[in-house]
From TrEMBL, chains A, B, C, D:
The active site is at C142. It is found in: Cytoplasm. GO terms for molecular function: N-acetyl-gamma-glutamyl-phosphate reductase activity; NAD binding; NADP+ binding. Belongs to the NAGSA dehydrogenase family. Type 1 subfamily. Residues 3-134 form the Semialdehyde dehydrogenase NAD-binding domain. Catalyzes the NADPH-dependent reduction of N-acetyl-5-glutamyl phosphate to yield N-acetyl-L-glutamate 5-semialdehyde. It comes from Thermococcus chitonophagus. It catalyses: N-acetyl-L-glutamate 5-semialdehyde + phosphate + NADP(+) = N-acetyl-L-glutamyl 5-phosphate + NADPH + H(+). GO terms for cellular component: cytoplasm. It is an enzyme of class 1 (oxidoreductase). PANTHER family: [LYSW]-L-2-AMINOADIPATE_[LYSW]-L-GLUTAMATE PHOSPHATE REDUCTASE-RELATED, N-ACETYL-GAMMA-GLUTAMYL-PHOSPHATE REDUCTASE, CHLOROPLASTIC-RELATED-RELATED. This is N-acetyl-gamma-glutamyl-phosphate reductase. Its EC number is 1.2.1.38.
Length: 330, 330, 330, 330
C-alpha cells in the first residue's frame, strides 16, 4: 500500500482527492491536513465522505510515501521545504508548473525558482516517461489540461488560437465571496478575464501555441468546455488523423460520431470521471477548425490527474483507482 | 409625486424596491442609502439598473414623504429615531411586526418596545383599513406572507398546522457565507430549521394557528412555496368556499383548475410579480387538507408588498406600479 | 387604443408577446390564436397569465390594427395571404427577414419570394425610419439581434468574425423532444451547430461581415450572450468610440465600467427587459477585439422588439410599454 | 463471473445499471436490450458510457445468470414468461412489489397475480435473508425506499405520517413530454400528486403505517429528500435509539451531528452513491418528530439497490461494486 498524505484537504480539489484516494485499492491515507479544521472529522467539511474515518490534522509529522499539496498558489513554494526528500511530492498549485520567466509574467515573483526545474509537468499524455522517474510533479491546471491536450496535435500549424472557455463554479474554490453566492452566480454567463488567463502560461510552454483565453463562468458546479478556434488549411480527415495520436490513451475519448446528439464533447458526459472528451468540427468554406475539449475540472483537471500521476510514479497501472464511468444524468 | 427614500438599498430587498419605485408612475426616488457603497452608482451594486441615474449616499438628510427601511433585523430599531415624524415609514425588517412578547421569544431583546404598538402590520389583505391611516407600517416577512394568507381562512378550525416551506437563495440575502456559495448551495434540499422559524411569530399573531415551520432551501434564486397540512373535516367545496373570501383581492389568484399541469401554485408562475397564488387539495379518506401558497419572495414577500402598502397609505390605487404579470418561463 | 392580434400565441415568443401587450397602455388585445388550445383560457398554456381574461381561438376573423405572426419558420409564408391588407403585420418567423438568395441558402425554398421586398427588417436601431412607414415588418432572430448590433459599428473593418454564442433553452421553443427534457438539457454546454447557424444570413445582410457562428446551449432558461472575436488594429478607445454611435439608443446600454464585477454584459442583467447590453475588451498585444452582447432572447430577441416595432409603426414613443428594468437576481 | 443481462437498458435506471455492472468486479454484461436502439452502441444513448464496448440488442436469446428487468410498470408482467427459470430475475418495475390487493388499488388489474408471492421484496435492510435465497426479487421504488427505511423503526407508534417528498427530474424517466422540457421543468416546486402516490402501497405493506405522500418536483436532476412528520411522545434520544437499529448497515448513514451545516440529510450529499442518509429532529413542545431521508433515486432508489440484491443473491459481499463515495460538489 502506498501511504498518502493530503496537505490542504479542505478545498474542493483536496476533498475530491481524499475521495479518490479513499477508494483507491493501493492507497492508505495517512494524513489529511487543514489548519482551520484540525481535529474535525472529514465529513464536517466534505459531507459526502460521511462514514470515512479520518480527521484533519494541522501537524506535518505524518508518515507518507507521497504527499499531495492541495494548497493555493503561492503557498506550495512557502511550505515545500518541510516535505522535500521525505516523500514523492505532487503539487497541485501553479507554483512549479512553468518556467521562472513564464511564472513571473503571469503570477509574480517566485520564491523558489531553483526548484522549478526539478519538477516534471504532470500531464501524463505528454510526459509519461519523465513522470515515471520523477520525485516531484507539478499537476496541471484544469483549463490548461483541457486546452493543451486539444491543441498539442496541432502545435505545428496553429500559431495562435482563440480559446473560449466555459467553466463551473467549483473551479473558483471554496471561498466566501459575494460574487460567488448562489443568487449572484446562478444563471450567469460571466466573462471574468477576456483574453488573459494565467493558465495560458502552461499552454505556451507545452504547445508553443499562443492562446487567447476568454473564460466564461456558466451555471455549472462541475465541468468545463474549451472551444478552440484556429485557421486550418486541410480537411476534416486531417483533423481526425492528428487527434488519433491519442487513440491508445486510457483517459482520452475521441468524439467522432456523425449522427445523434452526442457529436461533440460536453462536460455533462464526463462528470465524476477522469476522461477528457475531445471532438472537432471543420469549416471548409472558411478554412477554420474548432477543437472541443471537455473535462471534469476537479478530476482530470485536478485530483484524478494527480492520482494518475501517482500511479505512474509508483509503477501501478495508470488507471488504478480511476476507472470510473461518468455519472449521468446529473 | 411621492418622494421616496430607501435606507439600506444595497441588499436584494432594497434593490428590488428601487427597481419597483423607479418604474412607479407616482414616485420620485429622492435618496438611496448605503454605507458601503456611498458615492457609487446604483448599477455597480444592482447591475440590472444600469441606466438609472441614482447614486448611493450615506447621509440621512434627504427630503422624503415616505422612507423605506430595508435594513437587517435589529437595525431598524437602532436608527428609526432619525426618521420618526419626518415622513411615513415602512419598515421591512422584523423589528416592529410582532408584540414585544413574541419578539422577545423569537428574536431576543427589543430596544424600542414602546414603538411596536404604533406600527400597523402591513398585510393589506387583512389590514387595509388600518394601513390607510397609518404613519408607521411593518412590512411582513416573506414566509409569513405566504403562510398567513393561506391559513387565515381556516384560523377557526386549524389549531395547528405543519408548514413545509421550500425557499430560494435570495431570501438569504446578499452576504458572503461559505454555505451560500454556488457550489454548496446549488442542487440542495437543505433543511435549516426543522420545526422553528422566526416567521412563526407573525403567523401566530395574525391567525392564532400554531404553525410548525420546516424550511427547506431549494435550488431557486427567487420564489417560495408553502405546503401547509392540517386536519379538516369537510369537503373540497368547503375548502374552496373559505378561500373565496379573497375573490376580489387584486393580488391573490386562486388556483382551482381541475385539469392540466397548473392545478397547483408554483413559484415559477409568480416570478417578477406581486401575486400570491393559493391552491388546495383535500384528502377525504384521511380528513386532511393541504393549502399551497406561492409568492415571489422579493416582491409580494418584500418590496412589492411595501409598495402596495405605500399606495394604500397615500390614497393611490393599490395596484399602481405593481400591475406586472410574472415573467415566464424564467 | 391599438387593436392587436397574436397568431400562434401558445409558444414562448407568443406568450411573452401576450404578456407585454396585456401590460401595454395603448394596446387592446383582440385575439390570440392557437389551433391546439382553441377555447382554452390563456393561463392554461401560460400559467403566469392567470387572471388575464383571454381565450385562444382558431378563427382568423378578428378585428386588428396590427397582427403579430408568432408561428414557426415556414408557416408565415403559408398563412400570410389571410392577413395581407387587413392590418399592419409584424412577422416573427424567419420567412421575410432576408433576401430570397440568402433564404434559400440557409433555409430552403421560399413560397412567397415576391413579398420579401415589401418587408422591412425590424431592427429599430438600424432601420427606424423605414419601420415608421412600413406596413410589413420582419422581426429579427434572437441571435441575429445580439450579433448585428454588436458588429454593425465595426462592419467596415471586420471582414469575418468568430461568434461564440451561449443560448438558453427557451430559444428552442416549446416542443417535446427528448434532447430537451430537464435531465438531458440541464448542466450542458452543448454545441449544436459548429460554424453554421441560420441566423448568420441576417448578419451577412445587415453588416456585410461574414460571421462564423458556434452556438452552445447552456443551463439558462432565458438570455443569450454573444462573444464576438475579430482582428482589430486600434485602441480600446477606438472600440468605445465606435460603440458610442448607440449612445442615444433607449434600449442599448454600453457597459464600459473599469472596475467591479459588472464590467461585461451578462444575460443575467437583462432578464425581463428589452435592453441589449454591449461591452468590449481589447487585446493590444494580439490586436484582437472582443465585443460582448447580451439580451433576453424572448424580449429584445423576440417579443419586446416586436412591440418596439409596433410602437414605431403607430407613431408612439418607442419605449411605450417596454420601460421595464430587468428582474434581478432571478 | 456472474453473467448479467439488462432488459430495457435505454432508460435512466437501465443506463445507471449498465454503468454499475460495467464497473462491478464480479460481473460480465452479456446483453443489454432495447427495441428502439437495437444495433446501436451503448454510448449513443448513454453518452457517459463512451468507451464501453456494448451494443443494444432486441433479441432475448442471451446467456445470463441474472436478468434485470428495467422496463416500465406493466411491461414486466407481460414479458416475464420469457425469462422465468432461465436465470435469477430482479424486476425493477412495480409489477411484483406488492400484494394483488394493493397492486390493484394503486395500479390497476394485474396479469400475473400468481407470480407475486414468488417474489421477495428487495429491500436488503429488511429482507436480507429472504433475498439470499430468492430466485425472483422485486426491486423497490425510489420514493418507497427512502420512506420505508425512515419509517420502519417507528412502525409501532406512527399510525399515519405526512410525507412531503422533493424529487428530481430523472425520476420521471426519459420520455418526451412538454411538461418535462427544460424551460418548463427548471425552477419549479411543482406538486403533482397531493396526498396520493403509488409508492404508498409499498410503504403500507412494509411498515403498516399509513402515509400521505405529497410529491414536489424540484430543480434537481438526481436525488430525493423525504421529510416525514408524525406525532411522537418521547425524546430526541428515543428517536435516535430507534434509528440505531441501522448502525451496522453498510449503506445507511445516520446523520446525528449537533453542529455545522450538515446536520440533516440532503440529496446533494449522496449523489453517485448507494447511501441512504437518515436524520431526524424532534419538537418537544409539540410532540412531533421529523425523519429526513435522502437518496440518489437512480442508485439506492433503483440500480444500486438492484446490484445490492444481486450481490446478496449470489453470495457476494453486499457492497461489492457499490463502495462509491458520493461525488461532491456536483
Amino acid at each position: 500500500m502506498i501511504k498518502a498524505a493530503v496537505v490542504g484537504a479542505s478545498g474542493y480539489i483536496g476533498g475530491e482527492l481524499v475521495r479518490l484516494l479513499a477508494m483507491h485499492p493501493e492507497v492508505e491515507i495517512t494524513a489529511i491536513t487543514s489548519r482551520k479544521y484540525a481535529g474535525k472529522k472529514v465529513h464536517k467539511v466534505h459531507p459526502n465522505l460521511r462514514g470515512l474515518d479520518l480527521r484533519f490534522t494541522d501537524k506535518y509529522d505524518f508518515d507518507a510515501d507521497v504527499i499531495f499539496l492541495a494548497v493555493p498558489h503561492g503557498t506550495s513554494m512557502k511550505i515545500i521545504d518541510e516535505f522535500l526528500g521525505s516523500a514523492k511530492i505532487i503539487d497541485m498549485s501553479a507554483d512549479f508548473r512553468v518556467s521562472k520567466e513564464l511564472y513571473e509574467k503571469y503570477y509574480g515573483p517566485h520564491e523558489k525558482p531553483e526548484l522549478i526545474d526539478k519538477f516534471v509537468y504532470g500531464l501524463p499524455e505528454l510526459h509519461r516517461k519523465e513522470i515515471k522517474k520523477a520525485e516531484l510533479v507539478a499537476n496541471p491546471g484544469c483549463n490548461a489540461t483541457a486546452v493543451i491536450l486539444a491543441l498539442y496535435p496541432f502545435r505545428d500549424i496553429a500559431k495562435e488560437a482563440i480559446v473560449d472557455l466555459k467553466v463551473s463554479s467549483s473551479a473558483g474554490g471554496r471561498r466566501e465571496n459575494v460574487a460567488s453566492i448562489h443568487p449572484e452566480r446562478s444563471h450567469v454567463v460571466r466573462v471574468y478575464k477576456p483574453f488573459h488567463h494565467r493558465h495560458e502560461a502552461e499552454v505556451i510552454q507545452e504547445t508553443g501555441v499562443k492562446p487567447m483565453f476568454t473564460v466564461h463562468s456558466v451555471d455549472l458546479v462541475r465541468g468545463l468546455l474549451a472551444t478552440i478556434y484556429f485557421p486550418f488549411d486541410g480537411t476534416e480527415r486531417d483533423l481526425l488523423r492528428r487527434l488519433l495520436m491519442y487513440r491508445n490513451e486510457p483517459f482520452i475519448r475521441l468524439v467522432t460520431d456523425k449522427g445523434g446528439l452526442q457529436r461533440y464533447p460536453d462536460p455533462k458526459y464526463v462528470i465524476g470521471s477522469n476522461f477528457v472528451d475531445i471532438g472537432f468540427a471543420y469549416d471548409a468554406e472558411n478554412s477554420r477548425a474548432i477543437i472541443l475539449s471537455a473535462i471534469d475540472n476537479l478530476i482530470k483537471g485536478g485530483s484524478g490527474q494527480a492520482v494518475q500521476n501517482m500511479n505512474i510514479m509508483f509503477g501501478l497501472d495508470e488507471t488504478t483507482g480511476l476507472s470510473y464511468y461518468p455519472v449521468y444524468p446529473v
